[in-house]
Amino acid sequence: MTDCNQYFKLEVMRGKNLDVPSFRIPVGIYVSVFIDSKRCWKSTVGELLSNSSVAWNDAVTLSPRGPKLSLKIMASFERPPVLGRGEVISELEISWHELCKHGDEPFDLYFSPIRDVQPSLTLKVAAVHGSGIHHHTYVGHMRFAKYIASENLNVRAAELTEVLKHFQFVLEQCPVNHPHRAAALTNLAWARLQGYILKDLQDIDLTISLFRDALALCPQDHPNYPFYIYHLTEALTRRPTTAASIRESAQLYHELLPLCREGTYLWSIAIGDNCIGHVIRECNDLPIDVSDEGIHLRRIVLQLCQLGHQCRLDALTKLAKALEVRFEQRGSIDDINESIQLHRDAVSLCPEGHPDRGTYLRSLAVALSDCRFNHEGKSHDINEAISLHEEALLLHPVGHESRDRALSSLGRAILYRFQQCSGISDINDVSRAINLHRETLMLRPLGHPRRDTTLNDLACALIVRYRSVHTGDDLDEAIGLFRESLLLPEPERRRTRSLSLALCCRFKQTRIKKDIEEAIHLCQRSLNALPSLHPEKCLGYMQLQTAYLCRYQILRNAADLSLAVDNFSLASRHPTQGFPQRIQAASSWVETAESYCHESALEAYAMCFELLDGHLATRSTTTSRREAAAAFYYTRSLPADAASCAVRRKNLSKAVELVEQGRGQQWSLASRLRTPLEDLNSTNSLIAKEFLKLSNRLSNVQGFTGNTDQATVVGAEKEYRTLTKQWNAVVAEIRNIRGFSRFLLSPSYKELQVAARRGPVIILIASKYSCSAVIVPTAGEPHHVAFLGLALADLEKLKNDFAKALRRAAGMRQEDPRKDLRVLLRTVWKEIMLPIVNILRHVLKLQKRSRIWLCPTAAFTGIPLHAANPFRMGMKDGCPGPEECLEDIYICSYTPTLSALIRARRMMKTRAAPTFVAIGQSQPGAGQGTVLATVDSELDEVHKHVPPNVKFTNLSGDEATQAGALEALRCNTWVHLACHGKQDQDQPYNSRFAMRDKPLTLLDIMENNSPRAEFAFLSACHTAAGDKETPDEVIHLAAGLQFSGFKSVIGTLWAVDDAVAKHVVEAFYKKMFKEGVMDCTKAALALNYATAAVKKEVPLEQRIVFIHIGV
Predict the structure, then answer these.
(1) Stretch 1067-1076: mean pLDDT, rounded?
(2) Which intervals hold domain CHAT (predicted)?
């Protein structure tokens, strides 16, 4: 008898002389093996050949459970499904000893003859030793099947123990890099998982770890890879639910589904309700997580919910809500735009008659009003929101269980429109909102969980009406409602702040001190109830400052003003509140400090710039940064106002620093992200990577939601403190590296003064508080030039008058006098540039024909300062004649910012061999403009003047495409561009040059790094006209070229007449290359010469249209 631990591999190779006793023709022949009278194996059905033979080459591993086994050769007469087993051709009983004596060699086994013909089988038998992994795997599977089938708990536990022993042995025999290790891990893990499911094992974590290890060992292109993913998901979903396991399961199913062919068994199991369905439901039940990982998970869940999935509606709204919350914390317009679209998709899944349509209409309306309208202030959003709320109310008639919510939401939206849209405000809207809230209150009697909210909403509406029509009854009723709401259960923070505001209003009316003292006490109590880093502390600080400021306005105690300023500061600096709220707080601080001449004004301005810079830094694209800056409409004048504040405080150096910090933030941020980090990476790559990693993590933590769960709040605070400490430590370490001492700090006056190395820079400040200029000299302290006769309104009128005069000039003949234009330029000379010239001449002793740079802000950006001219007779060079104008005295250039000029000069240190490309497009593509008849002749004229030793390329006609122009900008050092140009006032990054196929946009140019570039002449319209939404951001085509790498650029302020502009181009290049030298620093002088040389051929407005920017 054989050892019970011995196993044999029986291979049935072929059969011969296999005649069917009944003479019936079989479909095929197969072999069955019986042990202890039980069939334990059946071979494949082989086809009978004409010589009565069959080839099988089939095998099985067998365990001897007795001294003998039986072999039967069977004839089958049907293809499956079959009726019965068929006919026995022959059978034979043989001992295991006899069967195994042939070793590993094939042998023939003969059966009893049939009609004098003896059938035979060719077999091969090999022993499978009990210590082998195949043997233990086989035994493990056999005993696992018994375990699953057993109902006896004691037997089952014993079987599982044996199963785990065998699979554990196999795993131990398959070390790392063994080809069967992944399978061994999976076998053991699957047995453990079933034991856990049947409650025979307690530990699931080890099982999950085994499945993870198996998945990690399997290549992604291996056929088993999808099964390994499924195994791990099955284990994860069996573990007690945690957010981490649900997130991981969702990620795994997201990876698994594309690998499963639709219709397969694995696919049908994976998409089932117990697999993906379970994970989707669990994910939808997770609390909102606005980190990048949390948003990514919501996107995955939505993708798992294919169209028609029962959970898709929930997945849409959960992702929409997460994006809403992140928008509220970070202010990214992309987030709220996507959220609104997701809400629209949700509404589309709820057609007329859907029971939840009203709910999803309200969610869309809230996203439009409370989020996007609050951020951008566009009235169409709030109007649509009100329409949606009205539709939702119609779906909730009297008696509907959700009517109270529909009434409340509509009332809030109507009141919000009244507060924010002064142009379309109607006091009747407030009365309507009050009536809606009164009806809501009737539907929410004492004991209703939302009664406190309704009391607060009604009181707020009454306060708004009181402020408009000053009805004392409204104010008293509002205070009573607020007090009633405070008697209801927590949370009460917002109601406390609202009552405080109402008490402030009554104090202003009645001067009763107890009202203001109670208001202050309520705010203090609300603040003290919050953890130190709770986001709502920012709102608490703002309400407390309102109360202190209210008391100061009546009682005029300077201490109250100081306390108000202290709370402005705390609100602006509160680290866990999102940037938008803090920017609003800092802006209010600025306004208050200016109104009451408080010494903290400069600090408030600096805080605004710091927060705006941080907010813009969270945007990944250039256009999104511009949209973010434009959204804070109340900060548009901030740079000029800040500089004006510093000037009024006799701190001219600070004025220069503030105006630089505030202007061109988008350019500064883009250049910061492009340059210092690259420099840091080349100096110390490890610390650069650590800085970026911590910045991303800190961005995710900042603005955590105000969770009422104390453990969550404490955990978030701890993580924020830890990350902030690490980030500050890394920044401090970076600043200790040579050359990085001011890393992420705004440049100082000393650093900015480098811009004036070749000539003074004149910063022109247009503020509602004062208008003046600050001259940054080559050395020494800055100089102030006051424009006592000019206010901001005068500059705005002057700018508008220029626009009108230019429109009139466009319709004149060349010989017609431009009287109104001359009058305006005379005003610019007398009121603005002459006082500056006097300082340059008599104080700085700046020699005639020296270079100066103009850096205008706000309204000054729309005025041609370089063309200032007295237009009167006098003495010129000692002889009677026209008085000297600005361009007779100095060579004028412009610069968007001082940093831009410094950066351009720094880049001049590395120069390449000059190459010149002339790009012209006389016949632009459809919709881009009319035919320009003189472009080709202009390019020929340019070529005529380029030195013969310089490589010249003419890119025109069909070759002047968008891609061709970009490549030319990238590969050449000098560029002349003659084509249509258009400044897009609404989307300045879409400002463009017209090409043959499609436009070359400002965004294309900015993203097209041109490190070899030196000079560009933009012979096109509006190439140096800025952005009306962010006037201090100088976003135009010429600035974009300078940012992309060009150090010296000539652009245009308004439309160019190509027929006369060619005269300026010819005179410019004639002067520029007179000595045969390519020097871009001579461009300003050459332009000065050219505009003077063509006075007879070119009308005034077409001479002064060209300006020089850069070195």
Answers:
(1) 92
(2) 825-1080
Q: What is the pLDDT of residue 1035?
A: 46
User: What phi and psi, each to the nearest 5 degrees, are found at residue 35?
Assistant: -130, 130
Supply the pLDDT for residue 1107: 92
Q: 787-823 burial, b for 16+ CB within 10 Å, e for fewer?
A: beebbbebbeebbebbeebbeebeeeeeeeebeebee
Percent of the chain at pLDDT above 90?
41
Decide the pairing of beta strands 54-62 and 7-16.
antiparallel
* Mean residue pLDDT across the chain: 85
Q: What's the whole-model pTM score?
A: 0.66
> How would you class 696 by CB atoms within 10 Å of its CB: exposed for 0-12, middle for 13-18, buried for 19 or more?
exposed
Rounded to whole angstroms, the Cα distance separating 782 from 657 reads 11
Of 682 and 1049, the structure prediction assigns the larger pLDDT to 1049
Tokens coding 965: 């122009």
The separation between CA 1087 and the C-alpha centre of its own chain, rounded to angstroms, equals 43
Whether residue 1025 has pLDDT greater than 60: no
**Per-residue buried b or exposed e for 943-955, using 16+ beta carbons within 10 Å of the residue's own CB:** eebbeeeeeeebb
Phi, psi angles (nearest 5°) of residue 674: -90, -35
Answer for the pair 643, 739: CB distance below 8 angstroms, yes or no.
no
Radius of gyration over alpha carbons of the chain, in Å? 41
Please give the Cα distance from 829 to 629 (Å, whole number). Answer: 33
Least confident of 271-275, 430-434, 438-442, 921-925: 271-275
Helix (H) or strand (E) holding 190: helix 181-197
- Tell me the backbone φ, ψ of residue 226, rounded to 5 degrees: -60, -35
Q: Are 1036 and 1024 in contact (CB under 8 A)?
A: yes
Please, which residues bridge with residue 846 across strands?
Answer: none
Q: Do 961 and 995 meet the contact criterion of CB atoms below 8 Å apart?
A: yes
Cα 578 from Cα 644, distance rounded (Å): 29
Q: Residue 43 in contact with residue 82, Cβ under 8 Å?
A: no
Distance CA 946, CA 380 (A): 54
Q: How many Å apart are CA 419 and CA 203, to the nearest integer?
A: 60
Under 8 Å between Cβ of 1033 and 1018: no
Both structure tokens of 911? 């120069």
Strands 992-993 and 1000-1001: antiparallel
pLDDT at 704: 42
Q: pLDDT category, 1034, cuts 50, 70, 90?
A: very low
Q: In DSSP terms, which residues pair with 920 in a beta bridge?
A: 956, 978
With beta carbons less than 8 A apart as the criterion, state whether 899 and 747 touch.
Answer: yes
Tell me the C-alpha distance between 238 and 1061, whole Å.
77
* Chain segment 75-85, per-residue pLDDT in tens: 998 888 778 88
Give start and end residues of each alpha helix (H) in 651-708.
652-662, 665-674, 676-683, 685-701
First-to-last CA distance in the chain? 102
Q: Are 324 and 281 in contact (CB under 8 A)?
A: no
pLDDT band, residue 923 (cuts 50/70/90)? confident
